[in-house]
Amino acid sequence: MRNLVRFLTKNSFIFLFLLLEIFAFWMLIANNSYQNSKFFNSSNFFVGNFYSTTRNIKDYFNLKQVNKELAEQNAKLQSNNISSFVKVYGRTYQINDTSYHQTYIYSTAKVVNNSTNKRQNYITIDKGDLNGIEAEMGVISANGVVGIVKNVSKNFSSVMSVLHDKNKLSAKIKKSGYYGSLVWEGNNYREAQLKDIPNHVKLVVGDTVVTTGYSSIFPENILIGTVSAFDLPEGNNFYNITITFAVDFKNLSHIYVVRSLQKNERELLEQESQQEIKE
Amino acid sequence: MIRDVLNYLFVFILLVLTQVVILNNIELGGYINPYLYVLFILALPFETNENLVLFLAFLIGLTIDIFSSTMGFHTSAAVFMAFSRKYVLKLIQPRGGYEFGTTPSLQHMGLSWFMTYAVILVVLHHLFLFYTETFNFSQFFSTFGRVIVSSIFTLILIFIVQLFNYNPNTRK
Fold this sequence. Notes:
The complex is a heterodimer. Chain A is built from 5 helices and 12 strands. By secondary structure, chain A is an alpha+beta fold. Chain A has 2 domains: about 120 residues, Rod shape-determining protein MreC, domain 1 (Thrombin, subunit H, Beta Barrel); about 80 residues, Thrombin, subunit H (Beta Barrel), CATH 2.40.10.350. By secondary structure, chain B is an all-alpha fold. Chain B has one domain. In chain B, about 70% of the residues lie in helices and about 0% in strands. Chain B is built from 7 helices and no strands. The longest helix of chain B is centred in the C-terminal third of the chain and has 25 residues. Chains A and B meet through α2 and α3 of A and α3, α4 and α6 of B.
């Protein structure tokens, strides 16, 4: 026993090193399943507040750009508003209770922390549980898709950016309707790869890529980006497509969180039918 | 003694703030990200208890990790760097050992010694950090490029900070 103690104290440096290193790696691995790391991420209260203070200062430098974006968005919304259309047929206006069933609700939030240079990028926003944000909600900006909410604390939420190596977004070519999955390979924050588009689809550089709405996290036809390059390796059934994001992830400030009202109903139905198959 | 502790505490806070508020937002070419906080581990006095060095490295790594929500990356790299520091110090020890009361700085040890010391440890730290981040060797060369370029920028910043305290007339 005494020998053991002596051995441990003599090599305490090495053992302490191993202990701390094992602890660090444990954190690293535990962090990959996000839920375990709730306490230590930037949605925790102290760090979140720190970032919202620094962000408040930084925001003044972007005011001009943000105003411009908001004005553009207002104009777009105004032109989509039902009141800016006139019904040319019929004499009465319907009360659109059943024919326009609301499926998605948008709420605004501000980005307080953001990164683009890692393999796994997260965005922290200044709305949380108290504002009705929940995990697995979609996040978009005026220009396009941004990410998916992962962790929620009282006042902040942590959003898994599209720039995340585990991110698999389903996306389609707007013109032809063929869908594939979007993969970000971690080199360039402006570009991503679109996989699984079969070789008989006609493509042109500049084609628009939008969300499919299959997962019910994002509404259909939200802009993701445009095709910037593609090629077809010989003997391959699928294209290699590079797309350029519509969103500039380095310049995010105001974003919208999307709540789907029919998500639960839809997932329940899909689960039920899958179980029936199993039985 | 107390003054030294307070001094290092101040340096700790200053380096963490610089890192998370300014440097984490710098990415020249989406590629280069300097990590100045390693200067804290470099600058601890020679006679600091080696276990304490490990603990302090762990602490500063953890703080940086919490602020940049990259749990474990900086902690493991900083601890690894503190571990190597002991052996690097032994390796490049001047004849007659280190004088008591001196610190591993440009001021006390001179350019060539400090250069060797800083280059070895910073490159080790960055190698560890970037390869744990990628976690595979398939992008070996692009990661290696990032290590080299980021190391150069970290080193430049470290030298700039060291020059603030440099006074050629009082050099030992």
